[in-house]
Each structure stands twice: as structure tokens, then as C-alpha cells.
């Protein structure tokens, strides 16, 4: 399975927009929001990861994350390691799963192999203290996972393009379509917390309920080339 060191750092990056300086761990341009003044209480999106790099290297991890400064990181998405046999992926496919990093380490839901053009449905829903990740392909649930962080007070929402060890970057743009972010209370200032990396293209954030529910029709992340020195 994939390594986990970078995913821990990612929980800070999502909220604070910080850049990791850890060796051999780099990040592609991101779209990140937060903190909200209330809490993040849910999200849905459709993720199209794009064609994976032709030469698989450990490791490339693409995900949509929510967290706050003290919670774990809810981060369903796709992985490519040098050996993708753990999910049955061919060289042109990704390994897809629900995933969570928190106290106790990395936890993953069941893995499935998907092609880069797959429209992946991702939903994070909250009931009491329990978050449920539901990952779907063509309307069928392929991976789920629960975790116990409760409402993500002063939480954030962001894309992760995480490149560890010998990773050279991505080979395709990534798309997030019809993203919806549910907040516990209206936050008209939420768009002002947006951080957008170089080359990231997106439609405006929209709300029809005074800032409690935000939608972003389209986010496109550019192809990312890891800088020299990333053990590549
Ligand atoms: C994150 O959310 C949890 C759960 O609701 C809350 O207990 C904690 O105080 C929040 N952390 C921050 C830094 O706001």
C-alpha cells in the first residue's frame, strides 16, 4: 500500500495553505478554501483524475480533502505507486479508495482500479460525530470509510496533488465538477479564504442561500511537474 508521511503534512496544507518543505515530498498547484468561521459539515464532488503517468513511480496521490487544524484528514481519491497490483490496476489505471489520515495512521476503504477518464463521485457526510465517505462510479458504491471528527470547526476544503519519493508529477489535468460544500452556518466571507495555485482554472464560487452552501461548477488543476531533487 502507499506510504503515508505526506498525507499527515497535507492536513495542515489544506487549512493553512502551507507549503511542505519536507524532502522528497512536493505538491502540485491546489485549490484550497478555509478556514470557515463555522464548520464544514459535508461536501460532494465529481472527480476526473486524468490519465496516470506512463511510468508509475511511488507515489502519486490525488485527492479532495477536508479537515481543520486538529482533526484528521478525510481524503478520498486515486493513488499510483510503482506497484499497483494491490488494487488490480493495469499500468494505465489508478487505484481508487476512500481514505483517512488521523490519530492511528492511514486508513483506506476498499480499493478498485479505474481509468483516468472515470467520473468518480465523492461524498463526505456527517451524522453526529461520524463522517462517512462514499465513493461511487457510475452510480455504484465502490468504497466507503467512516471516521469520528465531528463538525470541522474552522475547517477547510482543498485539492491535494501529492508527490512522494520518486514521483515525477502528473501526466494530465485533473477536474473537479459540480463541487458542493456544506457549512454549519452562512459564511459570505468563505470565497475570500480561497487560495489558488499557478495554472488552476475555476468557475466562480456561487451560493443561493446566503453563504451556507457553496458550489463550484468546475475546477481544473494543471499538469504538475515535480521539481528536480524530488528523488527523481
Ligand atoms: C476541529 O473540529 C473539532 C471537532 O468539531 C473541534 O473539536 C476542534 O476544536 C476543531 N479545531 C479547530 C482548530 O478549530
UniProtKB/TrEMBL annotation:
Keywords: Signal. Residues 1-24 form the signal peptide. This is Uncharacterized protein. It comes from Lentinula edodes.
Amino acid at each position: 500500500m502507499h506510504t503515508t508521511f505526506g498525507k499527515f503534512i497535507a492536513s495542515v496544507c489544506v487549512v493553512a495553505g502551507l507549503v511542505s518543505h519536507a524532502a522528497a515530498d512536493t505538491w502540485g498547484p491546489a485549490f484550497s478554501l478555509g478556514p470557515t468561521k463555522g464548520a464544514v459539515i459535508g461536501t460532494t464532488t465529481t472527480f476526473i483524475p486524468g490519465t496516470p503517468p506512463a511510468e508509475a513511480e511511488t507515489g502519486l496521490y490525488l485527492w479532495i480533502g477536508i479537515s481543520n487544524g486538529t482533526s484528521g484528514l478525510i481524503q478520498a481519491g486515486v493513488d499510483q505507486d510503482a506497484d499497483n497490483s494491490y488494487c488490480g490496476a493495469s499500468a494505465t489505471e489508478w487505484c481508487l479508495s476512500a481514505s483517512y489520515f488521523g490519530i492511528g495512521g492511514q486508513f483506506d476503504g476498499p480499493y478498485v482500479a479505474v481509468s483516468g477518464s472515470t467520473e468518480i463521485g465523492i461524498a463526505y457526510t456527517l451524522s453526529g460525530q461520524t463522517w462517512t465517505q462514499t465513493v461511487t462510479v457510475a452510480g455504484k458504491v465502490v468504497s466507503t470509510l467512516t471516521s469520528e471528527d465531528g463538525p470541522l470547526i474552522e475547517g477547510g476544503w482543498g485539492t491535494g496533488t501529492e508527490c512522494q519519493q520518486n514521483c515525477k508529477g502528473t501526466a494530465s489535468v485533473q477536474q473537479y465538477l459540480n463541487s458542493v460544500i456544506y457549512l454549519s452556518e452562512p459564511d459570505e466571507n468563505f470565497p475570500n479564504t480561497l487560495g489558488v495555485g499557478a495554472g488552476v482554472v475555476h468557475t466562480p464560487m456561487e451560493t443561493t442561500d446566503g453563504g451556507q452552501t457553496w458550489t463550484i461548477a468546475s475546477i481544473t488543476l494543471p499538469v504538475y511537474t515535480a521539481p528536480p531533487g524530488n528523488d527523481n
